[in-house]
Each structure stands twice: as structure tokens, then as C-alpha cells.
Write a structure and sequence with these properties.
Elements lengths: L9 H8 L3 E3 L13 E3 L25 H6 L5 H8 L22 E6 L3 H12 L4 E5 L9 E3 H6 L6 E5 L2 E4 L5 E3 L4 E4 L1 H14 L3 E4 L2 E7 L5 E5 L4 E9 L18 E14 L1 H4 L5 E5 L37 E8 L2 E11 L5 H15 L2 E16 L10 E2 L15 H20 L4 H12 L2 H17 L4 H11 L4 H8 L5 H14 L2 H13 L1 H14 L2 H4 L15
Parallel strand pairs: 3-4, 4-10, 7-15, 13-19
Antiparallel strand pairs: 1-11, 2-3, 5-9, 6-9, 7-8, 11-12, 12-13, 14-17, 14-18, 15-16, 16-17
């Protein structure tokens, strides 16, 4: 629901014209995303010098292979189709929030009106900053699954649509694993209502627009923002929260493995036969059984362990096959959400392959689709390099890589991190810090060396998963979920510090089969992800004079993750 923007008032034009600027060359118009901005009001800018420096220094914007993968690569058209879906039952942002006035001076600007951007905007405004969200007025269209304990801790249980007391996995015929942990499906409409309400209560303003450029003033204290239709205004600080699109406007470390992708094709549909295939009172978290090939229709439920028609456990000939699993939620009556998911792959497993596997899997399980209410094409970039800590633009949510490399989870973490990021931005504004110093404070909060080390560990796990065939994948996850619950839960939530992750690795190694032990050791010593992990731990725990490296991102003394 793209809105027509009013032209900037003449006062704002005078402000924009009176300051020299450093061009960031940002352009948030791109397929499949809805960039947005949040801006907050600051104290009056310092007096202009008698002689102004009118020169500008453009910041080069890269669009490399990693960014291509972040934005969908060869599946970009379907990624765009997913982001452009409509939902008339969701209220528009413009109907709930006051329209931003370009003639005003704002304290902070957040680009992105998705859940992460809106939540951060609320936290900023609650702390007294004049805040604006900028972006297209689009509904929430993705399906969000969350662990109940994490989501309840955030006080957001009222936004759930459905919940289950337990989640079940299958890692081969006759190998069901119940996780003993509740799972929930977030209602997109309830979450939208919640975000609009809290933003309205905090006096967040909204500007429906696409952002085409950012420039930092010559004195480094203000940012000029230009929209795609030519409106200009100033803000003290800008935080990009526009998802994968934001990556093209950030600089990244150079020593990390490349970006991978989690892809999934799903349907919400009326079906018959689900009760004969899966427990209706449990959430189906992962079913890696190879029912998508070599199995007659309606016969998968009759397969005995070791007697798959395609030999043994059905894994004959799977050495070159990228594994995928079915993820499902019974929503009541005959309505079910069903999704075939590839956890991680390089390159991404195509949606067409996932759709074909889902259709064949359902047929083999005797699940008949009667009516499809909605299709979903889920594309989540995972892993890859982290943003550097020395750039004049901050980011948040998926744009800041707050996506778990090995699971794709992000929404709970973004909500959990928002108050701390807001505190840093408020301190920067009230402390009179410049644009670059304020952005550095945000990056230090999001990605101190401790958290970079944790993420290097997660990336190592992700890179390992991307190399495993189906038998090894089943064996790996069977091992993973046999760990003590605090370890596997903490790992999935990015809440194990770097020291506990070493204990996690040691326990995994102790209980793993010889085959998994060998793969772990070979991956550590021969894969670039192994060296990336070792280097991160060196930066975290060894003095600079011993490593000869400087952690530009900064180190922290608190080793616990938030």
C-alpha cells in the first residue's frame, strides 16, 4: 500500500541546503523489500562555523555476491512476490500513527517498518526521543514460529495465534524425538496491532516513503535523508532496519565464509488425512524422513524401521541430495500449515524443488490438500560476514545480521536486543556524540567481540550442516537434541556465551557417533569456517600483542550474551 508523500516544507528545505554533507549514496528501492526509517529529535545543532566545508565525501556502496544472495539471488522474483502479498485485515500504519513532518528536526531515524524496526522505534520514543519510522506501508506477510518460553519472557504471548505444549521431530523411520518444549505461531494481525498500539502510545511518527539517499553533514552531527520522491529532511541518527535490503548500504568484515540461505515453500490449506500422519496436539518441528521419493502414495505411515522401499532407511543414492524436512502446524479443524524447508544450503535449494518434495511427501503420507488459502516462499539469508563497527550507519534486526546462522530464528532476538540498542542511541544523542560515534556505540552493543565469537561458532555449525548428506544430518540432529536441554536451547537462542559454547562442543563430541566426530574434526581443521572460528576465539581471549590483530569491533568484559 504505497502512499503518496507530501512535499517537504520550505523550512526543511532551508535546513537541508544550509549544511555541507557527506554522501552515503544509499538507495533503498529494491525488489522484495520495504525499507523504512525511524528518526528522533535531538538538541539544537551546534552553531555553524564561519567558513563551511562544502565538500562531500561519498561512502562507496558495494553490491557483491553476498548481497545478491541476501536479496534472493535466482529466487528474487518469488522473494518479491512474497513481500508484496496483501492482507486487508491488517490496519495500515498510516491509519494508526501521525504523519511525520519533514520541517521538524528528529533525533533518530529507523529505516524499516517491519517488526524489528517498529519495536526499536517504540523503545526509542519511550525514552523521550522524537522518533519517526520511514518505509512503505506494507502488511506483515511472513509466518513466525517461536519457542513459548522465549516469547512469554518478552511479554508477547497475547500475539500468538496457536500454541502447542510439545514439538516433535523425526530423524529416520521409527526415530521420533519429542523435545519437551512448547512452540507457538505468531498471529501476524495481532502482532501488527500490538506494534501499532505501542508505537502510537509512545508518539512515534510515520513517513510512508522509500529512501533514496543519506548524507552526513560536514560537522558529523546530522544526517540528511532523501526519499525517492525528492522530499528531504534532517535527523540526528539513522538506523537501517529494512531486512536484507539494508545489507547493500553496510560494510562487512572480509574474513568470513560467504552468505548461505534457508529456503522453504509452504501452504496454509484445508486438508484430509493429517490426523493419520502426525499427532494433531503437537507441533511438527522437523521430519527428515525421506518420504518425498521412492514411496507409494499413502504408504509412508506403514514403513517399518530399516524397511524403506528405497533401501534401509530410504537413504540410498542421497549422497548428492540437499536434505530438507517438513515443518507443520495443525491450526484447528482441517486447517494446517505445511512447509518443506531446507535449513541451509549453498546455493539455496530452489523453491520449485521444495514444492515438488512437499507435494510428493504429502501424497506418501496420505494427506490430501482440498483448498489452499495461502502460499509462502520463505527466503532467509544466514551466516556470512558481520558488519564492521566503524561505519556511520547503524542497523538493526535482520539488516544487522541478528539471524541465527544455523536456525534462521531472529524475531525473538531482535525484540530482546531492542531496549539495549535504544539505550545506546539515547546516550549518544544526550551525550552530544556525532553520527559516526553514535553508530559505533550501536555496533559495539550489537556486535562486541564476545558476540562475534559466539556467531563464529554458530557459523561453523551452519557451514558443517551445509556439507552433510541426509544420513549424517539425521545423525547430527539426533546427537544435538540428546544434549542437556539448557545447551541445545541456549544454542538455538544465541544465549550461550563463548565459554559455554566450548562446553557445548565438548559434550557434543563425547556423545556423538564416530562418524559425526570425524566430520566435526575434519571440518574444524580443513574448512575455512574452522579457521574463522579459531581466529574469533583468538581475538576474544588473547591479547592483541600475541595475536598481532586489532579487533576493530571492540571487545567487552561481559562474556554473557543478551
Amino acid at each position: 500500500m504505497k502512499q503518496t508523500m507530501q512535499r517537504q516544507a520550505s523550512a526543511a528545505g532551508r535546513i537541508a541546503a544550509s549544511k555541507p554533507h557527506v554522501s552515503l549514496g544509499l538507495n533503498l528501492r529494491q525488489s522484495g523489500t520495504s525499507p523504512q526509517l525511524v528518526v528522533a529529535k535531538v538538541a539544537a545543532p551546534p552553531a555553524e562555523p564561519a567558513v563551511r566545508d562544502t565538500r562531500t565525501t561519498p561512502v562507496e556502496v558495494q553490491f557483491d555476491k553476498n548481497q545478491t544472495v541476501r536479496e534472493g539471488d535466482y529466487e528474487a522474483e518469488l522473494v518479491k512476490a512474497q513481500s508484496n502479498k496483501k492482507d486487508t485485515a491488517q490496519a495500515s500504519i498510516a491509519s494508526a500513527l501521525p504523519r511525520a513532518d519533514p520541517s521538524k528536526a528528529y533525533d533518530a531515524a529507523v529505516v524499516g517498518a517491519g517488526p524489528a524496526g517498529m519495536f526499536l522505534a517504540c523503545e526509542l520514543a519511550k525514552r523521550g526521543l522524537k522518533t519517526v519510522v520511514i518505509g512503505l506501508d506494507m502488511p506483515l506477510v511472513n509466518n513466525y514460529g517461536v519457542w513459548l518460553d522465549e516469547y512469554r519472557a518478552l511479554g508477547l504471548e497475547h500475539t500468538l495465534e496457536c500454541s502447542w505444549d510439545n514439538a516433535v521431530c523425526y530423524f529416520g523411520e521409527g526415530k521420533a524425538k519429542r523435545l519437551g518444549r512448547g512452540y507457538g505461531r505468531v498471529s501476524r494481525r495481532k502482532l501488527r496491532e500490538h506494534l501499532l498500539r505501542i508505537c502510537k502510545d509512545a508518539n512515534v511518527e510515520y513517513l510512508p516513503a522509500e529512501v533514496s539517499g543519506l548524507e552526513v553533514s560536514g560537522d558529523g552531527m546530522q544526517t540528511k535523508l532523501t526519499t525517492a520522491d525528492g522530499v528531504q529532511f534532517t535527523a540526528r541518527l539513522v538506523t537501517v532496519a529494512s531486512g536484507a535490503a539494508g545489507g547493500r548500504f553496510l560494510r562487512y568484515d572480509q574474513d568470513a565464509p560467504s552468505v548461505a540461505a534457508q529456503t522453504a515453500y509452504g501452504i496454509e490449506a484445508e486438508v484430509e488425512g493429517y490426523e493419520g500422519a502426525y499427532p494433531m496436539n503437537e507441533m511438527l518441528f522437523m521430519d527428515f524422513r525421506r518420504h518425498h521419493t521412492g514411496v507409494w502414495e499413502e504408504s509412508a505411515g506403514k514403513i517399518q524401521p530399516g524397511a524403506h522401499p528405497n533401501s534401509g532407511d530410504g537413504v540410498w543414492g542421497t549422497a548428492g541430495e540437499v536434505p530438507s524436512f517438513i515443518y507443520a502446524m495443525h491450526l484447528g479443524g482441517n486447517r494446517v500449515f505445511l512447509e518443506e524447508t531446507c535449513l541451509v544450503a549453498k546455493p539455496a535449494l530452489p523453491f520449485a524443488v521444495l514444492k515438488r518434495r512437499l507435494e510428493r511427501r504429502l501424497a506418501s503420507m496420505g494427506i490430501k490438500v482440498k483448498e489452499v488459502h495461502e502460499e509462502e516462499w520463505s527466503y532467509i539469508p544466514v551466516g556470512g560476514p558481520l558488519p564492521t563497527g566503524d561505519q556511520p550507519v547503524a542497523a538493526f534486526g535482520a539488516a544487522a545480521n541478528l539471524i541465527h546462522p544455523a536456525t534462521g530464528f531472529s524475531i525473538s532476538r531482535s525484540f530482546r536486543e531492542a531496549p539495549g540498542v535504544a539505550d545506546e542511541l539515547v546516550a549518544a544523542v544526550r551525550g552530544g556524540k556525532g553520527v559516526k560515534e553514535a553508530a559505533a556505540a550501536v555496533w559495539q552493543k550489537l556486535w562486541p567481540q564476545e558476540k562475534r565469537t559466539q556467531t563464529a561458532f554458530h557459523v561453523f555449525g551452519m557451514e558443517l550442516l551445509a556439507t552433510l548428506d541426509l544420513p549424517s544430518t539425521n545423525e547430527f540432529f539426533d546427537t544435538f537434541f540428546r544434549l542437556p536441554a539448557p545447551y541445545w536451547r541456549g544454542y538455538m537462542a544465541s544465549q550461550l556465551d563463548s565459554g559455554k559454547l566450548i562446553l557445548f562442543a565438548l559434550q557434543t563430541f563425547v556423545i556423538a557417533s564416530p562418524g559425526i566426530k570425524w566430520k566435526l574434526m575434519a571440518h574444524l581443521f580443513t574448512d575455512p569456517a574452522g579457521q574463522y572460528l579459531v581466529n574469533a576465539y583468538k581475538k576474544r581471549y588473547l591479547p592483541e600483542e600475541e595475536t598481532g590483530e586489532t579487533a576493530a569491533q571492540g571487545t567487552d568484559t561481559n562474556s554473557s550474551s543478551s
